[in-house]
Every structure is written in structure tokens, then in C-alpha cells.
Amino acid sequence: MTAFWDLTALRDGYAGFIALFSSLTPDRLSESEALTARLLLVHAYRFVLLRDPRLPVEHLPADWNAPEARALFCRLYLALTPAAESHVAALCEGTDGPLPATTEASEHRRLALLSSL
Fold first, then answer.
1. Buried/exposed code over 28-65 (b: 16+ C-beta within 10 A; e: otherwise)
2. CA–CA separation, 115 and 102 (whole Å)
3. pTM strictly above 0.85
4. pLDDT band at 117 (very low <50, low <70, confident <90, very high)
5. What pLDDT, on a 0 to 100 scale, did the predictor assign at position 92?
6. What is the spatial distance between Cα 86 and Cα 62, in angstroms, rounded to a whole number?
């Protein structure tokens, strides 16, 4: 089944994501830096993830690194979120006034990420 997908390119993409973000230390970032880092994190992860056919585990190579990339994404997203959301709430406004730091949707996303760790 893996003959239909270039899993080498995907594995390299996940490896690049891991290399790029594995040394990120969210607790050393300002709120604005945390927001920027979170935006870049999501963009870089989706760049690979959206090309992943998500084959059954029995059809993946033994060195498949998508789970490691997913765990890193979840950990960093969760660590960056409080400062990033605080920055958004402090500086951004919608038609009804200042944006809230958290919403029902953001809390749902946080809980989903926590449950996947």
C-alpha cells in the first residue's frame, strides 16, 4: 500500500518539523513571540499533515515519525497558548469590543490536544 504514497518525503517533512521546533522553549518567549511561534507552529505542522494519507499503522515504516511530530505539536501548542491568547485579548478587537482570551472553541481545542498526549 505504501507504494502509492511518497512516505519518504512525508517522513522528511515530519523530521524537518521536529528539527525546527524541538528546541523551542515557550516559557522564554514574550506574549507576542508566543503568538508568532504558535502561528508558525500550526503552519509548519499543517504543511506536512495535510499531505499525510494517514495510512493504518501496519502499513507504515518502522521509523515513521508522525507520532513524534504530533506529540511535539500538541506539547508546544498547549504551552504557547496562554501567552498567545493573552496577547490577542490585550490587543485585538472585534465589532463587539476586545476579543476574549478564550472561547468555547479554544477550550474544546485545548481539551482535544490534552487528550491526545
1. ebebeebbebbeebeebbeebbeeeeebeeeebeeebb
2. 18
3. yes
4. confident
5. 84
6. 41
